[in-house]
């Protein structure tokens, strides 16, 4: 009698989406904390090609953002870059992206990370019910935002940092220091390429 084949172990993978314009230390802390707290096999930072927000957000070329992500993750073996939205181009709806990823990787369970400030907006998300059938939502607690939701969300505590990419861009444009807000390699790249100096 042939031995029974062991079922293939499902991979547990996190996804942190964003513009990463530029990637900064709060992004990296969130990614690292979710990876460790949930015991994931891998966590991917996934830059959007064009975010689907109503208020159009100006962003720099995907090539620059990918280069900065690669520099930031040089020593982080558990963190990698997912380029599916960059490769697809156009507006990036989470449902379309996760449908594509789950079809490509049927043995993977995905954990999609959102900020606590985004939870109230979930009812407005494109094809939300179908998305939740594809992924487990992970909420990152934020100050002054409730941790209650009608949706099944795993909540994760991370160190609170009032840091944003727009703040960094503003500081670069003003000629201010951005030391310790993002990896030194990314700071050097921003200065070398002259990024954000004309940010309004």
Automatic annotation (TrEMBL):
Xref: Pfam families = CTP_transf_like
Q: Which GO terms describe its molecular function?
A: ATP binding; nicotinate-nucleotide adenylyltransferase activity
Alphabetized Gene3D superfamilies for the sequence: HUPs
Report the EC code(s) recorded for this entry: 2.7.7.18
| Pathway connected to this protein | Cofactor biosynthesis; NAD(+) biosynthesis; deamido-NAD(+) from nicotinate D-ribonucleotide: step 1/1
Q: Give the Cytidyltransferase-like domain ranges.
A: 15-170
Q: Which domain of life is it from?
A: Bacteria
Entry keyword annotation includes Nucleotidyltransferase: yes
Q: Which residues form a coiled coil?
A: none
Q: Which family does it belong to?
A: Belongs to the NadD family.
- Function field: Catalyzes the reversible adenylation of nicotinate mononucleotide (NaMN) to nicotinic acid adenine dinucleotide (NaAD).
Q: What is this protein called?
A: Probable nicotinate-nucleotide adenylyltransferase
Gene this protein is translated from: nadD
């Amino acid at each position: 009698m042939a031995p029974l084949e062991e079922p293939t172990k499902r991979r547990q993978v996190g996804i942190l989406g964003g513009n990463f314009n530029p990637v900064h230390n709060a992004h990296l802390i969130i990614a690292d904390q979710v990876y460790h707290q949930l015991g994931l096999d891998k966590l991917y930072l996934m830059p959007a090609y064009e975010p689907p927000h109503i208020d159009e957000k100006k962003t720099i070329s995907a090539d620059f953002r990918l280069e900065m992500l690669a520099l930031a993750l040089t020593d982080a073996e558990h963190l990698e870059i997912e380029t599916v939205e960059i490769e697809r181009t156009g507006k990036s709806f989470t449902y379309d992206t996760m449908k594509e990823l789950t079809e490509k990787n049927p043995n993977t369970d995905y954990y999609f990370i959102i900020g606590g400030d985004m939870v109230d907006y979930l009812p407005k998300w494109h094809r939300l019910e179908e998305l939740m059938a594809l992924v487990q939502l992970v909420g990152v607690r934020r100050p002054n935002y409730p941790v209650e939701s009608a949706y099944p969300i795993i909540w994760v505590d991370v160190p609170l940092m009032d840091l944003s990419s727009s703040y960094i861009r503003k500081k670069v444009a003003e000629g201010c220091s951005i030391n310790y807000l993002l990896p030194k390699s990314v700071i050097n790249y921003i200065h070398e390429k002259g990024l954000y100096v004309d940010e309004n």
